[in-house]
Amino acid sequence: MKKLLIATVLGFGLSAAAWAKDIVDTAVAAGSFKTLVAAVQAAGLVETLKGPGPFTVFAPTDEAFAKIPKAQLDALLADKAKLTAVLTYHVVPGKVMAADVKAGKVKTVQGQELTIGTTGGVTVDNARVTATDVTASNGVIHVIDTVVMPR
Predict the structure, then answer these.
(1) 27: burial class by Cβ within 10 Å (0-12, 13-18, 19+)?
(2) Mean pLDDT for back-to-back runs of 10 residues, the chain (151 residues)
(3) Packing angle, helices 80-88 and 70-78, rounded to 10
(4) Which of 143, 141, 117 is nearest to 60 (CA)?
């Protein structure tokens, strides 16, 4: 009986580890980040965001990408260098949970700084954070309502 219990617990632990999804798989499973996932694929960043991290991703929804005029979005998706700069501007090294967010500047993977605001809700540059702490095996996603652009 003891061996069966240990085997069951170990098996469950391994299964739970297999269920943990990385940033990319978590975004795909959410269903509201189709444009973001397509952009990550077009920029060649899938393997990076599947890497060990940890990463904090401020993820714009499909509705956020829809705010960009179609011609401008198509041009961005076709320009790999610019697309990579925009996408990596949404990523901060490390795993920053909502409880740890403080107002101020934070350096992005792209190299520039995002401005975090905490008055009347959390903002990232001109985007409002609409959902927080979507955990992944290699970091966390915070959902934003606007695509933020590097300066």
Answers:
(1) buried
(2) 37 45 94 95 94 95 96 95 97 94 95 94 95 95 96 87
(3) 100
(4) 143
